[in-house]
Specification:
Elements: H1 3-11, H2 27-37, H3 39-45, E1 50-55, E2 60-61, E3 68-70, E4 76-78, E5 88-89, H4 108-122, E6 127-132, H5 137-144, H6 146-155, H7 157-178, E7 185-189, H8 201-222, E8 226-230, H9 239-244, E9 249-253, H10 260-267, E10 272-277, H11 282-285, H12 288-302, E11 308-312, H13 322-333
Parallel strand pairs: 1-6, 6-7, 7-8, 8-9, 9-10, 10-11
Antiparallel strand pairs: 2-3, 3-4, 4-5
Helix pairs in contact: 2-3, 4-7, 5-6, 6-7, 7-8, 12-13
Length: 335
Protein backbone atom coordinates (compact mmCIF):
# COMPACT_ATOMS: atom_id res chain seq x y z
CA UNK A 1 0.00 0.00 0.00
CA UNK A 2 1.14 3.56 -0.64
CA UNK A 3 1.51 5.94 2.27
CA UNK A 4 -1.63 7.69 1.19
CA UNK A 5 -3.61 4.45 1.14
CA UNK A 6 -2.19 3.31 4.47
CA UNK A 7 -2.97 6.53 6.36
CA UNK A 8 -6.38 6.93 4.71
CA UNK A 9 -7.24 3.39 5.83
CA UNK A 10 -6.14 4.15 9.38
CA UNK A 11 -8.24 7.32 9.53
CA UNK A 12 -11.18 5.33 8.14
CA UNK A 13 -10.78 2.66 10.88
CA UNK A 14 -9.66 -0.05 8.49
CA UNK A 15 -7.02 -2.35 9.96
CA UNK A 16 -3.98 -2.98 7.76
CA UNK A 17 -1.09 -5.42 8.04
CA UNK A 18 1.19 -2.63 9.20
CA UNK A 19 0.14 0.57 10.95
CA UNK A 20 1.32 3.80 9.30
CA UNK A 21 4.23 5.49 11.07
CA UNK A 22 5.57 9.03 11.27
CA UNK A 23 8.49 10.84 12.88
CA UNK A 24 9.77 14.38 12.78
CA UNK A 25 12.41 16.24 14.76
CA UNK A 26 13.20 19.58 16.30
CA UNK A 27 16.13 21.18 14.49
CA UNK A 28 18.50 20.31 17.34
CA UNK A 29 17.59 16.61 17.25
CA UNK A 30 17.69 16.48 13.45
CA UNK A 31 21.20 17.92 13.43
CA UNK A 32 22.29 15.36 16.08
CA UNK A 33 20.88 12.50 14.02
CA UNK A 34 22.64 13.66 10.84
CA UNK A 35 25.97 13.75 12.68
CA UNK A 36 25.23 10.37 14.28
CA UNK A 37 24.32 8.40 11.16
CA UNK A 38 24.48 10.62 8.08
CA UNK A 39 21.74 12.26 6.03
CA UNK A 40 21.18 9.38 3.61
CA UNK A 41 21.05 6.63 6.22
CA UNK A 42 18.61 8.69 8.30
CA UNK A 43 16.41 9.32 5.30
CA UNK A 44 16.34 5.59 4.48
CA UNK A 45 15.29 4.72 8.03
CA UNK A 46 12.52 7.33 8.40
CA UNK A 47 8.92 6.36 7.50
CA UNK A 48 7.91 7.83 4.15
CA UNK A 49 4.13 7.83 4.50
CA UNK A 50 3.07 11.40 5.33
CA UNK A 51 3.99 14.81 3.93
CA UNK A 52 2.69 18.05 5.39
CA UNK A 53 3.15 21.79 5.26
CA UNK A 54 1.55 24.60 7.24
CA UNK A 55 1.04 28.30 7.78
CA UNK A 56 1.61 29.45 11.36
CA UNK A 57 2.41 33.13 10.93
CA UNK A 58 6.01 32.60 9.78
CA UNK A 59 8.10 34.45 12.39
CA UNK A 60 11.03 36.41 10.95
CA UNK A 61 14.20 37.49 12.75
CA UNK A 62 13.88 41.06 14.04
CA UNK A 63 16.56 43.53 13.08
CA UNK A 64 18.67 44.54 16.07
CA UNK A 65 17.06 41.94 18.39
CA UNK A 66 19.08 38.70 18.31
CA UNK A 67 16.98 35.54 18.75
CA UNK A 68 13.70 37.49 18.64
CA UNK A 69 11.26 36.75 15.83
CA UNK A 70 8.06 38.59 14.88
CA UNK A 71 5.24 36.77 13.13
CA UNK A 72 2.64 38.05 10.66
CA UNK A 73 0.24 38.83 13.51
CA UNK A 74 2.78 41.05 15.30
CA UNK A 75 3.61 38.52 18.03
CA UNK A 76 7.27 38.58 19.11
CA UNK A 77 8.83 35.20 19.94
CA UNK A 78 11.89 35.19 22.20
CA UNK A 79 14.11 32.21 21.35
CA UNK A 80 17.05 33.24 23.51
CA UNK A 81 16.14 30.72 26.24
CA UNK A 82 15.81 26.95 26.25
CA UNK A 83 13.14 26.85 23.50
CA UNK A 84 14.99 27.56 20.27
CA UNK A 85 12.28 26.16 17.97
CA UNK A 86 9.21 28.24 18.93
CA UNK A 87 10.21 30.52 21.78
CA UNK A 88 8.10 32.38 24.33
CA UNK A 89 5.79 35.32 23.65
CA UNK A 90 7.46 38.63 24.53
CA UNK A 91 4.67 41.16 23.86
CA UNK A 92 0.91 41.73 23.92
CA UNK A 93 -0.41 42.63 20.48
CA UNK A 94 -3.84 43.11 22.09
CA UNK A 95 -3.11 44.92 25.39
CA UNK A 96 -6.74 45.42 26.41
CA UNK A 97 -10.08 43.79 25.50
CA UNK A 98 -10.77 45.87 22.40
CA UNK A 99 -11.21 44.52 18.86
CA UNK A 100 -9.52 47.61 17.38
CA UNK A 101 -6.20 45.80 17.85
CA UNK A 102 -7.19 42.77 15.73
CA UNK A 103 -6.00 42.56 12.13
CA UNK A 104 -5.63 39.81 9.57
CA UNK A 105 -2.13 39.46 8.13
CA UNK A 106 -2.03 40.76 4.56
CA UNK A 107 0.47 38.12 3.46
CA UNK A 108 -1.39 35.14 4.89
CA UNK A 109 -3.34 34.17 1.77
CA UNK A 110 -0.26 34.05 -0.45
CA UNK A 111 1.67 32.05 2.13
CA UNK A 112 -1.17 29.56 2.55
CA UNK A 113 -1.39 29.11 -1.22
CA UNK A 114 2.36 28.40 -1.22
CA UNK A 115 2.09 25.86 1.61
CA UNK A 116 -0.83 24.04 -0.04
CA UNK A 117 0.95 24.04 -3.39
CA UNK A 118 4.09 22.53 -1.85
CA UNK A 119 2.09 19.83 -0.06
CA UNK A 120 0.10 18.87 -3.14
CA UNK A 121 3.11 18.83 -5.46
CA UNK A 122 5.70 17.20 -3.20
CA UNK A 123 3.65 14.52 -1.45
CA UNK A 124 3.80 12.04 -4.31
CA UNK A 125 2.13 8.83 -3.09
CA UNK A 126 2.33 9.94 0.55
CA UNK A 127 -0.65 11.12 2.56
CA UNK A 128 -0.71 14.92 2.38
CA UNK A 129 -1.98 17.54 4.80
CA UNK A 130 -1.81 21.29 5.18
CA UNK A 131 -1.88 22.81 8.64
CA UNK A 132 -3.01 26.01 10.26
CA UNK A 133 -0.72 26.50 13.24
CA UNK A 134 -1.83 28.34 16.39
CA UNK A 135 -5.27 27.88 14.96
CA UNK A 136 -7.76 28.91 17.65
CA UNK A 137 -6.97 29.16 21.38
CA UNK A 138 -3.25 29.55 20.74
CA UNK A 139 -3.85 32.40 18.32
CA UNK A 140 -6.16 33.99 20.88
CA UNK A 141 -3.80 33.82 23.86
CA UNK A 142 -0.61 34.67 21.98
CA UNK A 143 -2.27 37.93 20.96
CA UNK A 144 -3.61 38.75 24.44
CA UNK A 145 -1.23 36.93 26.77
CA UNK A 146 -2.22 33.70 28.49
CA UNK A 147 -3.31 35.24 31.80
CA UNK A 148 -5.23 38.08 30.16
CA UNK A 149 -6.82 35.80 27.59
CA UNK A 150 -8.13 33.41 30.23
CA UNK A 151 -9.36 36.31 32.36
CA UNK A 152 -11.22 37.89 29.42
CA UNK A 153 -13.25 34.69 29.00
CA UNK A 154 -14.76 35.52 32.40
CA UNK A 155 -14.53 39.31 32.70
CA UNK A 156 -15.09 40.33 29.06
CA UNK A 157 -16.87 37.39 27.39
CA UNK A 158 -18.28 39.54 24.56
CA UNK A 159 -14.74 40.55 23.58
CA UNK A 160 -13.46 36.98 23.88
CA UNK A 161 -16.30 35.72 21.70
CA UNK A 162 -15.65 38.45 19.13
CA UNK A 163 -11.93 37.68 18.96
CA UNK A 164 -12.49 33.93 18.66
CA UNK A 165 -15.05 34.68 15.94
CA UNK A 166 -12.58 36.84 14.02
CA UNK A 167 -9.91 34.14 14.28
CA UNK A 168 -12.41 31.56 13.07
CA UNK A 169 -13.38 33.72 10.08
CA UNK A 170 -9.69 34.07 9.21
CA UNK A 171 -9.20 30.30 9.49
CA UNK A 172 -12.17 29.63 7.22
CA UNK A 173 -10.55 31.80 4.55
CA UNK A 174 -7.33 29.80 4.94
CA UNK A 175 -9.26 26.51 4.75
CA UNK A 176 -10.95 27.63 1.54
CA UNK A 177 -7.50 28.23 0.05
CA UNK A 178 -6.25 24.78 1.11
CA UNK A 179 -9.30 23.08 -0.35
CA UNK A 180 -8.41 24.43 -3.79
CA UNK A 181 -5.54 21.91 -3.80
CA UNK A 182 -5.69 18.07 -3.93
CA UNK A 183 -4.48 17.44 -0.37
CA UNK A 184 -5.90 14.71 1.83
CA UNK A 185 -6.38 16.52 5.14
CA UNK A 186 -6.40 19.81 6.98
CA UNK A 187 -4.47 19.85 10.25
CA UNK A 188 -5.21 22.30 13.04
CA UNK A 189 -2.49 23.04 15.58
CA UNK A 190 -3.76 24.16 18.99
CA UNK A 191 -2.92 23.22 22.57
CA UNK A 192 -5.77 23.02 25.08
CA UNK A 193 -4.53 20.45 27.58
CA UNK A 194 -2.47 20.42 30.71
CA UNK A 195 -0.92 17.29 32.19
CA UNK A 196 -4.36 16.74 33.68
CA UNK A 197 -7.46 18.44 32.26
CA UNK A 198 -8.06 21.44 30.00
CA UNK A 199 -6.30 24.77 30.52
CA UNK A 200 -9.57 26.70 30.37
CA UNK A 201 -11.83 23.88 31.57
CA UNK A 202 -14.52 22.13 29.52
CA UNK A 203 -17.26 24.75 30.05
CA UNK A 204 -15.22 27.63 28.59
CA UNK A 205 -13.86 25.36 25.85
CA UNK A 206 -17.43 24.55 24.82
CA UNK A 207 -18.51 28.19 24.99
CA UNK A 208 -15.70 29.81 23.02
CA UNK A 209 -13.70 27.18 21.12
CA UNK A 210 -16.10 24.40 20.13
CA UNK A 211 -18.33 26.66 17.92
CA UNK A 212 -15.25 27.73 15.95
CA UNK A 213 -14.05 24.17 15.51
CA UNK A 214 -17.49 23.02 14.38
CA UNK A 215 -17.40 25.57 11.54
CA UNK A 216 -13.81 24.74 10.62
CA UNK A 217 -14.24 20.96 10.70
CA UNK A 218 -17.53 21.25 8.82
CA UNK A 219 -15.89 23.19 5.99
CA UNK A 220 -13.19 20.52 5.62
CA UNK A 221 -15.57 17.58 5.79
CA UNK A 222 -17.92 19.12 3.24
CA UNK A 223 -15.00 18.92 0.81
CA UNK A 224 -14.47 15.23 1.58
CA UNK A 225 -11.13 15.69 3.35
CA UNK A 226 -9.88 14.40 6.69
CA UNK A 227 -9.72 16.59 9.82
CA UNK A 228 -6.70 16.26 12.12
CA UNK A 229 -6.45 18.18 15.40
CA UNK A 230 -3.23 18.62 17.33
CA UNK A 231 -3.46 19.30 21.02
CA UNK A 232 -0.91 18.44 23.64
CA UNK A 233 -2.14 17.52 27.09
CA UNK A 234 -5.24 15.91 28.54
CA UNK A 235 -8.32 16.66 26.40
CA UNK A 236 -10.32 13.51 27.06
CA UNK A 237 -13.08 15.61 28.66
CA UNK A 238 -14.01 16.86 25.19
CA UNK A 239 -13.43 13.75 23.07
CA UNK A 240 -17.19 13.30 22.79
CA UNK A 241 -17.57 16.89 21.59
CA UNK A 242 -14.79 16.49 19.03
CA UNK A 243 -16.36 13.32 17.65
CA UNK A 244 -19.74 15.09 17.51
CA UNK A 245 -18.41 17.97 15.39
CA UNK A 246 -16.51 15.74 12.98
CA UNK A 247 -12.91 15.21 14.06
CA UNK A 248 -11.20 12.23 12.42
CA UNK A 249 -7.90 12.14 14.31
CA UNK A 250 -6.36 13.48 17.53
CA UNK A 251 -2.66 14.19 17.40
CA UNK A 252 -0.82 14.07 19.79
CA UNK A 253 -1.88 11.16 22.02
CA UNK A 254 0.31 11.06 25.13
CA UNK A 255 0.69 7.76 27.04
CA UNK A 256 1.84 9.50 30.21
CA UNK A 257 -1.60 11.15 30.29
CA UNK A 258 -3.96 8.52 28.89
CA UNK A 259 -4.46 4.83 29.53
CA UNK A 260 -4.06 4.17 25.84
CA UNK A 261 -5.74 0.76 25.93
CA UNK A 262 -8.79 2.08 27.78
CA UNK A 263 -9.12 5.10 25.50
CA UNK A 264 -8.71 2.91 22.42
CA UNK A 265 -11.48 0.62 23.68
CA UNK A 266 -13.82 3.52 24.48
CA UNK A 267 -13.29 5.79 21.46
CA UNK A 268 -11.27 3.80 18.93
CA UNK A 269 -14.16 3.05 16.60
CA UNK A 270 -15.00 6.76 16.29
CA UNK A 271 -11.70 8.60 16.66
CA UNK A 272 -8.23 7.87 15.30
CA UNK A 273 -5.08 8.56 17.32
CA UNK A 274 -1.66 9.78 16.20
CA UNK A 275 1.21 9.47 18.67
CA UNK A 276 1.39 7.33 21.85
CA UNK A 277 5.22 7.05 21.86
CA UNK A 278 6.30 9.31 24.68
CA UNK A 279 8.79 12.12 24.09
CA UNK A 280 8.34 13.05 27.75
CA UNK A 281 9.35 9.79 29.43
CA UNK A 282 10.17 6.90 27.09
CA UNK A 283 12.43 8.28 24.39
CA UNK A 284 14.67 10.51 26.57
CA UNK A 285 15.23 8.07 29.42
CA UNK A 286 14.77 4.44 28.33
CA UNK A 287 17.40 2.13 26.91
CA UNK A 288 17.22 1.24 23.21
CA UNK A 289 16.01 -2.23 24.16
CA UNK A 290 13.23 -0.76 26.29
CA UNK A 291 12.25 1.58 23.43
CA UNK A 292 12.00 -1.35 21.01
CA UNK A 293 9.84 -3.39 23.37
CA UNK A 294 7.54 -0.49 24.26
CA UNK A 295 7.02 0.67 20.67
CA UNK A 296 6.06 -2.88 19.67
CA UNK A 297 3.69 -3.14 22.66
CA UNK A 298 2.00 0.18 21.81
CA UNK A 299 1.44 -0.94 18.22
CA UNK A 300 -0.10 -4.20 19.43
CA UNK A 301 -2.50 -2.28 21.68
CA UNK A 302 -3.46 0.37 19.13
CA UNK A 303 -3.52 -1.62 15.87
CA UNK A 304 -6.81 -3.58 16.11
CA UNK A 305 -9.57 -2.04 14.03
CA UNK A 306 -7.30 0.58 12.46
CA UNK A 307 -7.43 4.15 13.68
CA UNK A 308 -3.78 4.55 14.67
CA UNK A 309 -0.68 6.32 13.34
CA UNK A 310 2.44 5.29 15.28
CA UNK A 311 4.56 8.30 16.10
CA UNK A 312 6.42 10.15 18.82
CA UNK A 313 4.01 12.40 20.67
CA UNK A 314 5.75 15.52 19.38
CA UNK A 315 8.64 16.56 17.16
CA UNK A 316 11.47 14.72 18.88
CA UNK A 317 13.33 17.15 21.18
CA UNK A 318 17.08 17.52 21.40
CA UNK A 319 17.47 15.57 24.66
CA UNK A 320 16.65 12.19 23.11
CA UNK A 321 19.62 9.82 22.57
CA UNK A 322 20.18 9.02 18.91
CA UNK A 323 20.33 5.30 19.72
CA UNK A 324 16.74 5.48 20.97
CA UNK A 325 15.56 7.09 17.75
CA UNK A 326 17.18 4.31 15.76
CA UNK A 327 15.54 1.70 17.99
CA UNK A 328 12.11 3.26 17.46
CA UNK A 329 12.50 3.56 13.69
CA UNK A 330 13.70 -0.04 13.36
CA UNK A 331 10.71 -1.17 15.44
CA UNK A 332 8.49 0.64 12.95
CA UNK A 333 10.11 -1.28 10.11
CA UNK A 334 9.92 -4.63 11.90
CA UNK A 335 6.15 -4.71 12.36
Amino acid sequence: MTGRELVSAALSHIETEKVPCFCDFTQKEHDKMVVFMGEEKLKALLPDTIFGDQYAGEPRLMEGRPEHYQDDFGVIWDRSGVDKDIGVVANHVIPEPDMKYWHEPEAAAAKMHAAAKRASEQAGDRFSFVGIGFSTFERYWTLCGMENGLAYMLTDPDFAEALFGAICDFNLKMIDIVLQYPVDAVYFGDDWGQQKGLIMGPALWRKFIKPCLAKMYGRVRQAGRFVIQHSCGDIEQVYGDLIEIGLHCHQTFQPEIYDIGAVKKKYGDKLAFWGAISTQRLLPYATPEEVTAEVKRIIRVMKPGGGYIASPTHAVPGDVPCENIVAMLKAFQEQ
